[in-house]
Amino acid sequence: MFGRAMLLAVLVGFFGYTEVLAGPKVDPVTDRLCAGYEETIEGIWVDKSGWETLRFRFASDLDGSGCYAWLNPVPQWNISRPGSTLRDVRRDGALRASGNETNGVSVDLEAGTARFIRNGRTTRGKVIK
């Protein structure tokens, strides 16, 4: 009897731990955000302590039209629900960028990294697909 209880505790602990490793959950309503573009990049923003905090989608067409979406709520970042905004996207080899060095989003597909800048403050991220 004790062996089964111990096994159950280990399994619950394991699955709970793997859930944390999976990062924040994408809200189901986000499937339509930034849909229909020639290229879609998904990634995750990381807080200052290295914790995966906010999932994102960055999509674009060759003509420069694009979209940026945040895919889960993060109350401590004043994000109460998922959403998106239309953007102009520049493509240069493996680099994708929108905005500028004060307010913008950039992704380096070769390095697998991302950067979000708001009012000159940078949040780092990584590409996940």
Task: Itemize the secondary structure elements and their pairings.
Elements: H1 2-21, E1 39-46, E2 52-60, E3 65-70, E4 83-88, E5 90-92, E6 95-99, E7 104-108, E8 113-118, E9 121-127
Antiparallel strand pairs: 1-2, 1-9, 2-3, 3-4, 5-6, 6-7, 7-8, 8-9
Mind explaining what this structure looks like?
- The protein is built from one helix and nine strands; from the N terminus they run αβββββββββ.
- It has one helix at about 1-20, and strands at about 40-45, 50-60, 65-70, 85-90, 90, 95-100, 105-110, 115-120, 120-125.
- The chain is globular and about 35 Å long.
- It starts with a helix and ends with a strand.
- It has a single domain (about 25-125), classed as Lipocalin (Beta Barrel), CATH 2.40.128.
- A hairpin with a 2-residue loop joins β5 (about 90) and β6 (about 95-100).
- Strands 4-3-2-1-9-8-7-6-5 form a nine-stranded antiparallel beta sheet, with no helix packed on it.
- The protein is an alpha+beta fold and about 130 residues long.
Label this structure with key terms:
129 residues, 43% strand, Lipocalin, alpha+beta, 9 strands, 9-stranded antiparallel sheet
Describe the structure in brief.
The protein has 1 helix and 9 strands, in the order H-E-E-E-E-E-E-E-E-E. It has 129 residues and is α+β, with helices and mostly antiparallel strands. The chain starts with a helix and ends with a strand.
